[in-house]
Amino acid sequence: MHLCLIDDDAALLATLSRGLSELGHECETFTSATAGVEHLLHPGSARPDVLLLDVMMPDLDGWEALARLRAGGFDAPVIYLSARREVDDRVRGLDLGADDYMVKPFALMELVARINAVVRRRGQRAPFTIGGLVVHRDRPRVELDGRTLDTSLREHAFLELLFSEPERVFSKAELLHELWEIDFDPRTNVVEVFIARLRRKLGPTCSGLVETVVREGYRLARETPQ
Predict the structure, then answer these.
(1) CA-based angle 123:141:194, to the nearest 5?
(2) Where are the beta strands (DSSP E) in 138-183?
(3) Which residues carry the record's DNA-binding region feature (predicted)?
(4) Where would you tag: which of 80, 114, 178, 181 has the fewest CB atoms within 10 A of its CB?
């Protein structure tokens, strides 16, 4: 998942970011709430799957930060991370539009469980994952070993097809219809060229995920490439 963390405690931020990254999440961090809010509200910024937000920060507190984000149309799930443990604080955070509130200190795996829970409650679809490959389903994004691949919309759609029906072999005619919306032309090699390009992008560790079934088509490999 793509996570955004805003906390003025640089040491905590580094620890959380490292731990979450090791679990396969992509993390962007801000020690300034003002900078974080400006980034998230910028029209060109990618929407994170979950925002982790501190409450007590010097330039802009978490209450005002969330109020500005929600007013600006930011609708991603938000989890407050705070040393403030009073019930009134938790209620205030939830009333402002947060999805959860965690009191510091906390265990990393509990945080991960809370992140997964708010994503499920929001009805977001979890990405397809196999090995180091992550294929998001709520946005056209493909990641490999923590880095974003430069895949096209059609390449993303193809990977979604394979993952959604892992036992199915997609024929060349089906792929031409599904991805290009054209009738089958036995003379065209557009599918073969497309597959070869995608395999190069996936690199040596994951190119084998796209398996060729001779005289039938393509499917998701039955075994994860090593």
Answers:
(1) 130
(2) 142-144, 147-148
(3) 125-222
(4) 181
Q: What is the DSSP letter of 48?
A: P
CA 150, 176, 221, 120 torsion: positive or negative? positive
**Which architecture does CATH list for 128-220?**
Orthogonal Bundle (1.10)
Coil, strand or helix: which one is 47?
A: coil
For 35-85, write each residue's pLDDT tens digit: 999 999 987 787 888 999 999 998 899 999 999 998 888 888 999 998 877
Q: State which CATH number among 2.60.120.10, 3.30.300.30, 3.40.1440.10, 3.40.50.2300 fits the domain covering 2-121.
A: 3.40.50.2300
Q: Give residue limits of the domains in the chain.
A: 2-121, 128-220
Q: Tokens in use for 119?
A: 């994503």
Token pair recorded at residue 91: 């209620």
Out of 98-107, 124-133, 140-149, 214-223, least confident range? 124-133
DSSP 81: E
DSSP-assigned beta bridge partners for residue 84: none
- Token pair, residue 198, equals 């995608």
